[in-house]
Amino acid sequence: MRCQMVFCVVIGLLLTFNINFQDAVIFKFTNIVCESYNQSWVVFRYCRLKAVGRDRVHLNVNATILYPAYNITNHGKIFKRASGYKPWILDTTVDACRFVRKNYDPFAKIVFSLFKNFSNINHTCPFVGHQILKDFYLKPELLILPFPTGDYMLSMRWYFGKRLQFDTNVSFVFVEDLIKS
Ligand SMILES: *[C@@H]1O[C@H](CO)[C@@H](O)[C@H](O)[C@H]1NC(C)=O
Ligand SMILES: *[C@@H]1O[C@H](CO)[C@@H](O)[C@H](O)[C@H]1NC(C)=O
Ligand SMILES: *[C@@H]1O[C@H](CO)[C@@H](O)[C@H](O)[C@H]1NC(C)=O
Ligand SMILES: *[C@@H]1O[C@H](CO)[C@@H](O)[C@H](O)[C@H]1NC(C)=O
Ligand SMILES: *[C@@H]1O[C@H](CO)[C@@H](O)[C@H](O)[C@H]1NC(C)=O
Ligand SMILES: *[C@@H]1O[C@H](CO)[C@@H](O)[C@H](O)[C@H]1NC(C)=O
Fold it and tell me: Any signal peptide, and if so, which residues (predicted)?
């Protein structure tokens, strides 16, 4: 009898937690910076955020790659804001062409899963022409990593061959409020 009670309370708490977790999570873009370092290979036509609701911000990007890129490397790094952005946990270099064939990098896989349905970037190398992200917003349910509440920046620096071609640095806020009901 008593054990059953405890069991019920635990299940009740889990359910409540779960519901609150879904309700209270905020995961949205706060800033985006795209910069090409070689306008004769990569041109950004636009790269911007648009608030479409209290907790939803859309990211739209239109970039053109003027010549095919066969060898693309991404250097990804996460910073967490604590009186200025400080490097936080992740610093990874991914062979993007190998990644789109093999999905080999677990972190890139999470990032890719967040945006692939909003883009035309889901294919193998080479990459050429218009690269589009349309009305991309962040879905907390796709984020399988436990993130503490905070302001973050994910810096992605893109190399073709050995040379840096462009940066896409995106900032976002994550609020995991389990107490608010
Ligand atoms: C810039 O892009 C051009 C055109 O693709 C390329 O030939 C050149 O090597 C690139 N320069 C750098 C510094 O990456
Ligand atoms: C992206 O920009 C190019 C011109 O640079 C334009 O032709 C194309 O229609 C644009 N696509 C979108 C979805 O905005
Ligand atoms: C992406 O779209 C496909 C097909 O519409 C859907 O089955 C899938 O659940 C979507 N994935 C995400 C991560 O939203
Ligand atoms: C592109 O997306 C489709 C449908 O979501 C998926 O079946 C396919 O494996 C993806 N291709 C790559 C290269 O990720
Ligand atoms: C993107 O972030 C990196 C830090 O990893 C920084 O060095 C770089 O200057 C930033 N790029 C832009 C265009 O702000
Ligand atoms: C890509 O470029 C890097 C740097 O130039 C080089 O070390 C690497 O072998 C190249 N990879 C492929 C698949 O061409």
Answer: 1-24
Tell me the pLDDT of the chain (181 aa) as tens digits.
444 554 444 444 444 444 444 556 889 999 999 999 999 999 999 999 999 988 899 999 999 999 999 999 999 999 998 877 777 778 899 999 999 999 888 888 988 999 999 999 989 999 999 999 999 999 888 777 777 899 999 999 999 999 999 999 999 999 886 654 4
Q: What is the pTM of this model?
A: 0.83
Other CB atoms within a 10 A radius of the CB of residue 167 amount to: 15
Distance 79 CA to ligand 5 centre (A): 11
Tell me if 157 is assigned to some domain: yes
Minimum CA distance residue for ligand 3 atom 2:
117
> How many CB atoms sit inside 10 A of residue 155's CB?
18
Residue 38 CA to ligand 1 center (angstroms) comes to 6
- The CA-based dihedral angle spanning residues 97, 28, 36, 126, taken in that order and rounded to the nearest 10 degrees: 20
CA–CA gap between residue 157 and residue 165 (Å, rounded):
8
Q: Which atom of ligand 2 has the smallest separation from the CA of 130?
A: 1
Structural domain including 56 reads 22-176
- Ligand 2 atom 1, closest CA: 62
Which of 35, 37, 39, 40 is the pocket-test mutation for ligand 1 (most atoms within 8 Å of CB)?
40
User: Considering its fold, how many domains does the chain have in total?
Assistant: 1
